[in-house]
Design goal:
The protein has helices at 27-76, 80-99, 105-123, and strands at residues 16-17, 20-21, 126-129, 141-147, 157-162, 164-167, 170-173, 175-180. 9% of the residues are buried. By secondary structure, the chain is of the alpha+beta class. α2 (80-99) packs antiparallel against α3. The protein contains 3 helices and 8 strands; from the N terminus they run ββαααββββββ. It has 2 domains: 30-76; 80-180, Head domain of nucleotide exchange factor GrpE (Nucleotide Exchange Factor Grpe, Chain A, domain 2, Roll). The strands form 3 sheets. The chain has a 3-stranded antiparallel sheet. A 3-stranded mixed sheet has the order 4-8-5, with no helix packed on it.
Length: 181
């Protein structure tokens, strides 16, 4: 009888890298780590995009508010240049009224034009600056002369040389006045 040789299988040797033996890699754990890293990267991108969006939105809102304010200001004072140009004509009509005979047809016609022009300007917010017998205000009055007058307190307007006008709250032309000392 022959003896059968029993074959002994030799175990495969482990690969040694440095001092550690290579451990088998679990593909599920490796993929999870990659996905977690990708999620963190996407969350950072989302946070940056949200921040950029809010900045752009705020800038758009500020621009819209600024443009609305400019539009309202433009509408409020759109007549400023025109009214400034028409004031000398109004002054000339006042001079014509003062120099014509009371009740004459010429004065009646000039009075109608003057009243109509003044009414149209008033509808648009142009008004006369009250000056006579008022305290001098350098914001709306321009002192041309001063005079010491008995019985009048100092700093009071005693004569108006040229009327002043304002458009709503903005001075178109200051009143030229004489002020008491």
């Amino acid at each position: 009888m022959r003896k059968k040789k029993t074959e002994q299988k030799a175990e495969e040797p482990q690969v040694v890298l440095g001092d550690r033996a290579e451990e088998p890699v679990n593909p599920v754990i490796d993929e999870t780590a990659l996905l977690k890293g990708r999620i963190a990267e996407l969350e950072d991108q989302l946070a940056k995009a949200k921040n950029d969006y809010f900045k752009a939105y705020a800038e758009t809102e500020n621009t819209r508010k600024r443009l609305r304010a400019e539009f309202e200001s433009h509408n409020k004072y759109r007549l400023q240049n025109f009214a400034g140009e028409i004031l000398p004509a109004l002054d000339n009509l006042e001079k014509a009224l003062a120099s014509t005979e009371e009740g004459s047809p010429l004065q009646v016609g000039v009075r109608m034009i003057y009243d109509q022009l003044k009414s149209s300007l008033a509808k648009e917010g142009v008004s006369e600056i009250e000056a006579l017998h008022r305290d001098f205000d350098p914001n709306v009055h321009q002192a041309i002369a001063t005079e010491k007058i008995e019985g009048v307190k100092p700093g009071q307007v005693v004569e108006v040389y040229q009327k002043g006008y304002k458009l709503k709250d903005r001075v178109l032309r200051a009143s030229m006045v004489k002020v008491s000392e």
